[in-house]
Design goal:
It is a single chain. With 460 residues, this protein is an all-alpha fold. Among the domains are: 197-294; 295-381, no CATH class; 387-460, no CATH class. Helix content is 70%, strand content 0%. It contains 28 helices and no strands. It is elongated.
Length: 460
């Protein structure tokens, strides 16, 4: 057998032929190794001899499936695939998880076509992480079972697949879900799926982001009333505790769940997070949750957070969300801070237009969102209370430009349009009163008269 390593290729080929004539099972492993010989004559001789040895007995090849060298195990599985003998079934099933020999083992099981291999192939596919090996397992399944995935064996695996949906490994969860959709497309509507709801609810609260998100998605699929169902309501205290989790995703999902439940007891913990939370994604979900709960206690803290947000700028994402939520409350207390944000974003837009500096698209989007929020408050408010709030920042704004715009700066245009939407005599009365009170303030008088002219022009 040492001659198989001789530097002369003809010697190695002759050694392989000689070992074939001897027929000693101990030569199986060295011959399997010789298949990888770079010289065609040697590898061909080794393969020819092994085929003859295979016809005399499978045991040496089955034993080679446990060899410490991966390429030996792989070649042993390839030869067993060629024999198509079910005597090797158990050994090949054990080899399915072998990174080196797993693909060859799956091919072998497909050729053997013994239905006892269906379940092991499915379970191996669920736990698989290699695309090529996983594909070979599915090919083997189709060879064994032409009716896959409607076969009885596949359907018997559904409970195990549902359990795998809660596995800590993301690949296993993904594969199990994909397999469930093939075997039982309506699995989420079954009585068995409902039984997993408590475990899924518990998984939402654990500090494992991927699993928690997957569990939340599955809950929405299984329970049409989630999270307002009785099963979720029983977990309210646990979700309240989850707001204090160290894992940001857990805090996000807890905020989302409690707001969808309409749980008013979550308001105070959410307000605490609003003030102290550093993670911008968590704060965004907390703001949305407070908006959905619609509790007026959130208004002042939201105003405070928005006013402080400009000292810790990270884009306009959070500012937009807070503006939308404040607008949904229809509370006049939010108007001054929203007007301030409207003015700031208009200023950024002007700088971009004039100097080509700044985040134009982000500022423009935030400007639009803020305007809609103010508009919503205006549409649901009392005119004589709103008009002074709109006029106050206008009187300290720079005088109207003499440029192309009829109404002047963007901020001034926005306020005039809002005043026009209010309409009636209220605006005119307030402006005239303002002129009378500001006899010693020429700028205020000029702006007030200009606003009256602009309102008149817009109406026409």
């Amino acid at each position: 057998m040492s001659a198989l390593k001789d530097p002369v290729k003809h010697v190695r080929a002759a050694a392989a032929e000689a070992l074939g004539k001897i027929g000693d099972a101990k030569a199986t492993v060295p011959l399997l190794a010789a298949i990888a010989d770079r010289q065609y004559e040697v590898s061909t001789a080794a393969r020819r001899v092994l085929e003859k040895m295979l016809s005399k007995g499978l045991v040496p090849f089955i034993d080679a499936l446990k060899h410490p060298q991966g390429h030996i195990r792989e070649q042993a599985a390839i030869f067993l695939a060629g024999c198509g003998n079910s005597l090797a079934l158990d050994a090949l099933i054990e080899t399915l998880s072998d990174w080196h020999a797993g693909r060859a083992a799956a091919d072998a099981l497909g050729k053997i076509a013994d239905r006892r291999a269906i379940k092991p192939l499915l379970l191996a596919w669920i736990k698989g992480t290699d695309v090529v090996i996983d594909a070979s397992r599915l090919d083997a399944l189709k060879q064994i079972d032409p009716h896959w995935p409607e076969s009885l064996e596949a359907n018997e695996l559904v409970p195990e697949l549902m359990t795998a949906l809660l596995d800590q490994n993301a690949n296993i969860r993904r594969n199990a879900k994909a397999l469930l959709l093939k075997i039982a497309p309506d699995w989420h509507r079954s009585a068995e799926a409902i039984q997993y709801v408590p475990d899924l609810i518990a998984a939402v609260r654990i500090p494992a982001p991927d699993l928690a998100c997957d569990a939340y998605d599955m809950l929405q699929a299984i329970d049409p009333n989630w999270p307002s169902s009785a099963a979720s309501r029983r977990q309210v205290n646990d979700f309240l505790d989850a707001l204090g989790s160290q894992e940001p995703v857990t805090r996000i999902l807890a905020s989302l769940t409690l707001s969808r439940m309409g749980e008013k007891n979550a308001v105070l913990p959410l307000l605490y997070l609003l003030e102290h939370e550093a993670n911008i994604d968590v704060v965004s979900e907390v703001v949305k949750a407070l908006g959905q709960l619609g509790d007026a206690r959130a208004i002042e803290p939201l105003i405070k957070r928005l006013s402080s947000q400009y000292n810790h700028r990270s884009g306009y994402h959070l500012e937009c969300i807070i503006a939308e939520v404040l607008g949904s409350f229809h509370d006049l207390r939010a108007v001054p801070i929203l007007l301030w944000q409207l003015r700031m974003t208009a200023h950024v837009m002007w700088n971009v237009y004039r100097y080509g500096a700044g985040a134009s698209e982000e500022a423009q989007h935030c400007h639009g969102v803020t305007y809609k929020a103010i508009q919503e408050i205006v549409a649901n408010g009392i005119a004589h209370e709103i008009v002074p709030l709109l006029l106050a920042p206008l009187m300290v704004e720079l005088p109207f430009d003499d440029g192309d715009s009829i109404l002047g700066s963007q901020f001034q245009e926005d306020i005039v349009h809002l005043l026009v939407k209010i309409g009636g005599d209220c605006v005119s009365t307030e402006l005239r009163a303002l002129v009378e009170r500001s006899a010693n303030q020429p700028h205020v008088i000029t702006v007030a008269k200009k606003v009256l002219d602009c309102i008149s022009d817009v109406k026409q």
